Amino acid sequence: MGIKVELAQIKPKLGDINYNLEKHIAILSTSSADCVIFPELSLTGYVLRDLAFEVFRESEKAINKIAEVAKCAVFGTVKEVRTGILRNTAVVSINGKVDYVYKFYLPTYGLFEERRYFQPGDPLKDLKVFEINGMRFGVVICEDGWHPEPIEALAMMGADTIFIPAASPLRRLDRRLLIQDNWEALVKAHSLMYGIWTAFTNAVGSQEEEFFWGGSMISNPRGEIVARAKLFEEDRISYYLNEEDIRIARFFSSFRDHNNDFHKILSNI
């Protein structure tokens, strides 16, 4: 048992919903994958600032158009969860049915300022596990992957695969791309600790003053990067995620020995 996934590493046009929608539909219409994962805020672009207040209505209308053509897709948008309250959202569309995942950790440091525009998700309400072709998966958005709790919780809830749509900008370029090394370490670590497939789909190209580096990747449950997208250009990569690799990884790990007492300590700190 398993699923074929495709990571659609695209360059969204900032605020141009129609252009981005057409790109989504074109990819979904030509994909042979069971599920296609797009980057964070793929329908709107990432560096929105006050533009978020203008594009959310149009981006919400585009969701149903994607659901009409997608067997399974994960893509990003801005959603109004109550009047005047917006969230950075990953849409999960499976066989015409739509659900939503919200970003929990909103980066507001350095070049990031998400807290000015978005409300964070509520872990007690918004952690969700989905299923396609017998494989259960969870979704976390970019910054959530830099924290252990969201993916740990989803793995304990039964997710065998984690998708991480991201909009990770270029930070430092020496002889190696440091942010790529950082993300590779995170993706491998999540896979190793929980015996899961982890798929990171990054945006690419320029938006305002920021440049997104691409480099989408997939780690198997043994912490090995088995598929990589190109750097600095649009790309599409596919890979088959099988259940047997999860089983083998967990037979030879301590995934089964989860001690909730650590969380009791953390909740009182």
Description:
The protein is α/β, with parallel strands linked by helices. It has a single domain, classed as Nitrilase/N-carbamoyl-D-aminoacid amidohydrolase, CATH 3.60.110.10. It is 29% helix and 30% strand. The chain contains seven helices and 14 strands. The chain has a six-stranded mixed β-sheet with strand order 5-4-3-2-1-14. A hairpin with a 2-residue loop joins β4 and β5 (97-102). α1 packs parallel to α2. The longest helix has 18 residues, at 52-69. It is globular, with a radius of gyration of 17 Å. The mean pLDDT is 96.
Short description:
29% of the residues lie in helices and 30% in strands. With 269 residues, the chain is α/β, with parallel strands linked by helices. The strands form three sheets. Strands 5-4-3-2-1-14 form a six-stranded mixed sheet.
Low-confidence stretches: none
CATH-defined fold name: Nitrilase/N-carbamoyl-D-aminoacid amidohydrolase
Q: State the end-to-end distance.
A: 42 Å
CATH superfamily: Carbon-nitrogen hydrolase
Q: How large, in whole angstroms, is the Cα Rg?
A: 17 Å
In DSSP terms (H or I, runs of 4 or more residues), the helix count works out at 7
Strand content: 25-35%
Derived from helix and strand composition plus strand pairing, the structural class reads: alpha/beta
The secondary-structure element order is EHEHEEEHEEHEHEEEEEEHH
Q: Could you give a short account of the major beta sheet?
A: 6 strands, mixed
Write down the overall geometry: globular
Give the helix proportion (percent range): 25-40%
Mean pLDDT reading: 96
Q: Just give the CATH class.
A: Alpha Beta
Number of strands: 14
Which CATH architecture is right?
A: 4-Layer Sandwich
User: How many individual domains?
Assistant: 1
Strand order of the largest sheet: 5-4-3-2-1-14
